[in-house]
From TrEMBL, chain A:
It comes from Corchorus olitorius. It comes from the Eukaryota. Residues 1057-1070 have a biased composition (Polar residues). TPR repeats lie at residues 128-161, 162-195, 197-230, 342-375, 376-409. Keywords: Repeat, TPR repeat. This is Tetratricopeptide TPR-1. One of its GO terms (biological process) is regulation of DNA-templated transcription. Residues 951-966 have a biased composition (Basic residues). GO terms for cellular component: Cdc73/Paf1 complex. Residues 863-909, 921-1095 are annotated as: Disordered.
From TrEMBL, chain B:
The keyword Repeat applies. This is Uncharacterized protein. PROSITE patterns: WD_REPEATS_1, WD_REPEATS_2, WD_REPEATS_REGION. Coiled coil: none annotated. WD repeats lie at residues 14-59, 60-101, 158-199, 200-243, 244-285, 286-321. InterPro entries: SKI8, WD40/YVTN_repeat-like_dom_sf, WD40_PAC1, WD40_repeat_CS, WD40_repeat_dom_sf, WD40_rpt. PANTHER family: SUPERKILLER COMPLEX PROTEIN 8, WD REPEAT-CONTAINING PROTEIN 61. Keywords: Repeat, WD repeat. GO terms for cellular component: Cdc73/Paf1 complex.
């Protein structure tokens, strides 16, 4: 056992002091030392021994005594030992100052240390150990440059002064010059190979900083070999293990960290790392305790920042965003630049995002991006913020960049895809599909929302098979498979038969009885709904119906399912059931604007105008006038109101039109891209005669409406065709009507056929007109108006044929046949009107019947005439043939004569010859004069006839207006004239009855014309029927026609109803699911951000 | 599941008529010739075609306005055709001699069908809301089966046009007649007592075609409607027992295979579909037509043939196995 011997003064004896048996009270030793005037180095040895044994008080007592003025005086010439004592005290107080956390005490310690060193310097200002001590004091105070100067002084005197080398190495380390620092440590080690482990610790740290991780690890391990309890080395090795980022390494790292903590529980770094670990294991209580200790024991900014960060994260993950935000802020306060420690910015950004403070979230994330310009998570976060701020373009930019930087980040593709859904469905689909395949490759389950959105996008692009696949994948296994599968249970079939009984939930109870579990998880409701929509689109109405019912069975408040069932019923024209279903929806929410709008349409379809208007109003009110659909419906209502009135009241019409325009415009102001509002505005403009503008609008709407299965706008095609028609461009109008019919209606819409027929009529293509009408009748047999129109077309065809200058007998014959048909049609209508089968005025039809009969008789006359003419032509041809025969005979005779002459006598008498010739000439002349004469006579007869005819026509035509109004047209005796007269009248009448109103609707045809026509009619004695026509009798042909028109326009909202409501629902669904995903995102982001921290 | 029927296209005649072909039926074979396909068109003609080659046998003229329906007597000797001008022409199939011209003004004429024994011709009477029965021996109108009008203060024009009768079908035993109306109701009559029995409900849009299933399921009635669905009714029990969806537009025509195992439909969606009613689903879709398919008809006397006619002016023949 080590011991010291204190020489007893004036003797050879010594006092033996066993160092491990030093008295508890230092005064005992001090007394001996003083009494024996022991050499100062003994004092120092004993003091150091006390220190080593942790008896700090005794250590201090001896050294303070050993540096007291008496000692100075007594040992005045023992300089080195005195300096050593002072330096030991200086070092002691430096250490106290260094570990003291309270600022005032800390400073007090440093002052004391400084005083001791200064005192030492006064004894010998060149003593290197004093300078070394001073340097270390300065380092402890953080005055790195001054420390450098102090160590330099020592090293200038002695290059190999180990403490100075170590000090200087520390200085260089603090300055960030790790390789210089490393060199100094190495030199120290060379000079003094047995120096304590701390030197190797320095080497390890330098190498670590220089990235030489393996060498660093070796250095730390060496330190631990020398000093198994070296906390710093343990912590350093632990950190390196943790950073290896593999389960085994982390386990090892944490073991070391724990050991370090057991050895010395106040190492802030170890505490932080432990806290970090417990954060991930979810032991938040430990996190807080450890972090608070760490904060108490350190003043080191970065370490404190880390501690605050740990604390903040802990609160963050517990959902205490307020506290989390506060500690993130604290953490940020401890750092000078984001580059030092950027994570708290990320955390703060997230907290701000959560609390909806997008601006400050934005600035925090931007700081993160400054440090890590390629960080995907940050970009995604920024993307989300820009979405929230409405800057979609910027959001897209970040999302695109994120996917480019990490093309394997499925979540980034999901985010990008969702952003693109509204703007570019194709790109959205690509992004989502990429995300899906990334997840599949990674063995990750693809979220239901992603598959749902992929399905919807395929759906929208009419890729129904792919949509179906995606929805089925999203749904996986469940009761819906039994409902949609190929091998249904017999009672499923029974249930699908009772499509009308939506309330029948027996099916599902039977499923339950049969041991099926009838479950529908909440996150799959939307998908089931979309799947049902898809089946609807594929015309599997029965399946769709069952799926909607399944939704309602589990979620009786799911309004959209009611509305779709109502739409199905409506499409099948079961209005009563449809209304019932909408009312079910309204029972769930009596302010649901979609349900109210639909109810309004149904009421309109039921011809319940007043109710419909009220319903539309309440739909609009329910959304504070923000629901475009409700406003549009009101706009449409006003438009129909403007044009439906049989008694056209110009004032009322203008008011309604103006109101309609105002409403459409209101929608357009809110949503500039609303196609339906634009279409409506176009219609109003067309009503006012601005065809060019409206044509432009319609064309644009038509273009915009193509490309999505959810936007079906046949109306705009019809409107365009109407404009073409109004502008007289019949060929284009025909084409447009035909395309519309084919594209949207499978050629089944008789109303469009009627428009088409009317266009043919105006273009005077009678046969096409008739054929078109016959097709329309075939489609809509109970629409007697069409028959009437067909009759009129045939009548018109006949008159126009008879009017022709030249016509063949065949033409006239077909005219007669056509007239017979017309008579038959009108007669049938007339007979049917007795039975109230249709709303025609009997008198009017009879007029037509009579007229056609007369026309027919006249036509028969014409036919006879034509046939006569034909006969005459035949006779003429016969005559000409005979003439030719005679000519031939003459030629032959001549030849014969010549032959005869030759034969008889070539030198016959000239006279005889002349005589013979004269005779022949006479014969010839006789021929000539007889034939042409008869021909001429014939011709003049015809001329006479025609001349008289046309003369009469003119005459009568001129007279007509003056004639007695009350005189029946048919009383006249002159048949020919009558025919012509009547023809004109009826033409006017036709134009008036059948086509004026309709044309008016589009083009406000010159009132003059209309009035003129009316005058003519009045003049012609058709007053009565016209009065009825224009008047209250809604059953008149005109009225019917007009009704037909407005009915067709009625279809507009109906179309909008069926087509647009699914869109709305769908988009709503999409938005919902977006929302869900977005939430998931932020959660995931949170997780990901935390992962980052391990760096 | 028993082996299901399958269709294979055999032959198509483009421009079989100058205009849309609206009606088709098979005329049974006689001792002197095989059965023939009879078609009617908007071009005002009725044509007869050989059963396998679809060679044109004869073109009958004489109708004004489009031909909307054709019917063949079970003997195969006579047939009837009807046009939009509401005239029915009864003619000898082999000579084209006119046997009778029928009209019952103001009643229009839509579908027609001879009863299974061939003693009566039933004609859907359009706006008269009735079926007209003509005796095939005397060609006299023997009965009018009227759909009872809904009770109300006065028959408004609205309700009567709804009862417009479009389609008619005899039950295989000849005891029942069913007719389909514009408003979607189907009415069933007891022929012997000339009595209305009941309505079959479920459709709310025009029912353009009806057919009874052959024995032994002869209570079953199949209906085709503009609502895109085919319904299966128990015509006696007044019950809707099944509904089949799949067509994208109006179902214009329905016919049942001679063995009663399958259904064929023609639709405005341009397709011909073959259905299995055990599955309640279409098992085959033929898309060779380019416009609405107005009629489908199974050949009754063997050979396994289905014919379809369309607005695209063509006729198609399929083999069914």
């Amino acid at each position: 056992m080590a011991c010291v011997y204190i020489p007893v003064q004036n003797s050879e004896e010594e006092v033996r002091v066993a160092l491990d048996q030093l008295p508890r009270d230092a005064s005992d030793i001090l007394d001996i030392l003083k009494a024996e005037q022991a050499p100062l180095d003994l004092w120092l040895i004993i003091a150091r021994e006390y220190f080593k044994q942790g008896k700090i008080e005794q250590f201090r007592q001896i050294l303070e005594e050993g540096s007291s003025p008496e000692i100075d005086e007594y040992y005045a010439d023992v300089r080195y030992e005195r300096i050593a004592i002072l330096n030991a005290l200086g070092a002691y107080y430096s250490y106290l100052g260094k570990i003291e956390t309270k600022q005032r005490e800390k400073e007090e310690h440093f002052i004391l240390a400084t005083q001791y060193y200064n005192k030492a310097s006064r004894i010998d200002m060149h003593e290197p150990s004093t300078w070394v001590g001073k340097g270390q004091l300065l380092l402890a105070k953080g005055e790195v440059e001054q420390a450098f100067a102090a160590f330099k002084i020592v090293l200038e005197g002695d290059r190999d002064n180990v403490p100075a080398l170590l000090g200087q190495a520390c200085v260089e380390f603090n300055r960030g010059r790790y390789s210089d620092s490393l060199e100094l440590y190495k030199r120290a080690l060379q000079v003094y190979p047995d120096c304590p482990g701390a030197v190797r610790l320095g080497i390890g740290l330098c190498r670590y900083r220089l990235g030489q991780l393996e060498k660093a690890r070796l250095a730390f391990q060496r330190v631990l070999q020398l000093d198994p309890e070296n906390v710093e080395a343990l912590v350093a090795l632990a950190i390196m293990d943790l950073q290896a980022n593999e389960a085994h390494g982390i386990q090892k790292g944490m073991d070391k960290m724990r050991r370090a903590f057991e050895i010395y529980p106040y190492c802030a770094m170890a505490l932080n790392y432990l806290a970090n670990h417990f954060f991930f294991t979810g032991q938040h209580f430990l996190v807080e305790q450890l972090t608070e200790t760490a904060l108490a024991v350190t003043n080191h900014g970065p370490t404190k920042s880390h501690s605050y960060y740990n604390l903040a994260r802990s609160y963050h993950s517990k959902g205490d965003y307020e506290k989390a935000g506060y500690y993130y802020m604290q953490s940020i306060k401890e750092i000078n630049k984001p580059h030092e420690f950027v994570f708290p910015y990320y955390g703060l950004g997230q907290v701000k995002l959560k609390s909806g403070d997008f601006r400050s979230a934005l600035s925090n994330f931007e700081k993160v991006l400054e440090v890590y310009p390629d960080n995907c998570e940050t970009m995604k976060a920024l993307g989300h913020i820009f979405v929230q701020l409405g800057q979609i373009e910027k959001a897209l930019e970040f999302m695109r960049k994120a996917t480019k930087i990490d093309p394997r980040d499925a979540q980034a593709f999901v985010d990008l895809g969702e952003l693109l859904i509204s703007s570019d469905s194709g790109a959205a689909l690509d992004a989502l599909k990429t995300a899906r395949s990334l997840m599949e490759k990674g063995g990750q389950a693809v979220p239901v929302e992603v598959l749902n959105n992929i399905g919807v996008l395929h759906f929208e692009r009419e890729e129904f098979e792919l949509a179906l696949e995606s929805f089925n994948k999203a749904l996986g296994d469940g009761i819906w498979v039994t409902l949609t599968g190929n091998k249904p249970k017999s009672y499923v079939i029974e249930a699908s038969a009772s499509i009308l009984d939506y309330k029948d939930m027996q099916l599902f109870h039977r499923f339950e009885e049969d041991g099926y579990s009838v479950e529908l998880p909440w996150n799959k409701v939307t998908v089931v709904f979309n799947l049902a929509r898809l089946h609807e689109q594929l015309h599997n109405t029965g399946t769709a119906n069952l799926l909607y019912r399944l939704i309602l069975f589990k979620y009786p408040d799911y309004i959209d399912a009611y509305l779709r069932l109502a739409a199905i019923a409506k499409a099948r024209n079961n209005l009563q059931l449809s209304i019932e279903l909408v009312n079910e929806a309204l029972k769930v929410n009596d302010k649901c604007p979609n349900a109210l709008s639909m109810l309004g349409e149904l009421e309109l379809k039921n011809d319940d105008w007043v109710k419909a208007k009220e319903t539309f109003r309440s739909a609009s009110d329910a959304t504070d006038g923000k629901d475009s659909y409700a406003i549009l419906s009101l706009g449409n209502w006003n438009y129909f109101a403007a044009i439906r009135n049989e008694k056209r009241n110009p004032k009322l019409e203008a008011t309604h039109l103006e109101k309609a325009k105002e409403l459409y415009t209101r929608v357009l102001v809110q949503h500039t891209a609303n196609l339906y509002a634009a279409n409506g505005a176009g219609v109003v403009l067309a009503e006012k005669g601005h065809f060019d503008v409206s044509k432009d609008i319609f064309t644009q709407v038509q273009e915009a409406a193509s490309g999505s299965v959810f936007v079906q706008m046949p109306d705009v095609w019809i409107n365009l065709a109407h404009v073409f028609f109004a502008q007289g461009n019949f060929a284009l109008a025909v084409k447009m009507y035909q395309n519309c019919l084919r594209k949207f209606y499978y050629n089944t819409d008789s109303q469009i056929l009627l428009y088409l027929a009317r266009t043919h009529y105006e273009a005077e293509q009678w046969q096409e007109c008739k054929k078109t009408l016959l097709r329309a009748i075939h489609l809509a047999p109970s629409n007697y108006t069409l028959r009437f129109d067909a009759g009129v077309a045939m009548q018109k065809f006949s008159t126009s044929t008879l009017q022709k200058e030249k016509r063949t007998a065949d033409e006239v014959r077909s005219t007669v046949a056509e007239l017979e048909n017309a008579v038959r049609i009108f007669s049938q209508l007339s007979a049917a009107s007795n039975l109230h089968l249709h709303g025609f005025d009997e008198k009017k039809i009879n007029t037509h019947v009579e007229y056609c009969k007369h026309l027919l008789e006249a036509a028969k006359v014409h036919r006879e005439a034509a046939e006569r003419e034909e006969q005459q032509n035949r006779q003429k041809q016969e005559a000409a043939r005979q003439l030719a025969l005679a000519e031939e005979a003459r030629r032959k005779a001549e030849e014969q004569r010549k032959h005869l002459l030759e034969k008889r006598k070539q030198e016959d008498e000239l006279k005889r010859l002349q005589q013979a010739e004269e005779h022949f000439k006479r014969v010839q002349e006789q021929w000539k004069s007889s034939n042409p004469a008869s021909k001429r006579r014939d011709r003049s007869e015809i001329d006479d006839e025609e001349g008289g005819h046309s003369e009469k026509r003119r005459r009568k035509g001129g007279k007509r207006r003056k004639k007695d109004k009350n005189k029946s047209r048919y009383e006249r005796d002159d048949e020919g004239a009558e025919m012509v007269d009547d023809r004109e009248e009826l033409e006017d009448e036709d134009a008036n009855m059948n086509y004026r109103e309709s044309a008016d609707q589009m083009n406000d045809q010159d009132d003059e014309n209309g009035e003129k026509a009316q005058d003519l009619l009045a003049a012609a004695g058709l007053e009565d029927s016209d009065v009825e026509d224009e008047g209250a009798a809604p059953s008149s042909a005109g009225g019917r026609r007009r009704r037909a028109w407005s009915e067709s326009d009625d279809d507009e909202p109906a179309q909008r109803g069926t087509e647009s409501s699914p869109v709305r629902e769908n988009s709503a669904e999409l938005q919902d699911s977006d929302g869900e995903i977005r939430e998931d995102n932020s959660k995931l982001n949170g997780g990901a951000a935390l992962d980052d921290d391990e760096d | 599941m028993s082996k299901s029927m399958k269709l294979a296209g055999l032959k198509s005649v483009e421009n079989a008529h100058d205009e849309s072909v609206w009606a088709a039926t098979w005329v049974p074979g006689t001792t002197t010739r095989p059965s023939l396909l009879l078609t009617g068109s908007l071009d005002e003609t009725v044509k007869l075609w050989s059963p396998d080659e679809l060679d044109l046998v004869r073109t009958n003229t004489g109708h004004c306005l489009g031909v909307v329906s054709v019917a063949a007597h079970p003997s195969g000797v006579i047939a009837a055709s009807a046009s939009l001008d509401s005239l029915v022409r009864v003619f000898d199939v082999d000579t084209n001699a006119t046997i009778a011209t029928l009209e019952a003004p103001p009643s229009e004429v839509w579908q027609m069908q001879f009863d299974p024994k061939g003693t009566t011709l039933a004609v859907a009477g359009g706006g008269s809301a009735s079926i007209k029965l003509w005796d095939t021996a005397t060609w006299r109108l023997v009965a009018t089966l009227s759909i009872p009008r809904p009770e109300g203060p006065k028959p408004s024009d609205k309700s009567s046009s709804k009862k417009f009768v479009l389609s008619v079908a005899w039950s295989p035993d000849g005891r029942r007649l069913a007719c389909g109306s514009m408003d979607g109701t189907i009415s069933v009559f007891d022929v012997a007592r000339a009595k209305f029995l009941h309505h079959l409900e479920g459709h709310h849009m025009p029912v353009r075609s009806l057919v009874f299933s052959p024995e032994p399921d002869s209570r079953r009635l199949y209906s085709a409607s503009d609502d895109g669905h085919v319904h299966i009714y128990d015509a006696e029990g007044k019950a809707l027992i099944g509904a089949m969806s799949g067509h994208a537009s109006w179902v214009l025509s329905v016919d049942v295979s001679p063995d009663g195992e399958a259904l064929a439909t023609g639709s405005s969606d341009k397709t011909v579909r073959l259905w299995d009613f055990k599955m309640r689903a279409a098992i085959q879709t033929m898309s060779n037509h380019t416009d609405q398919v107005w009629a489908v008809a199974f050949r009754r006397d063997g050979g396994g043939r289905l014919a379809s006619v369309s607005d695209d002016k063509s006729i198609s023949l399929y083999h069914c196995s």
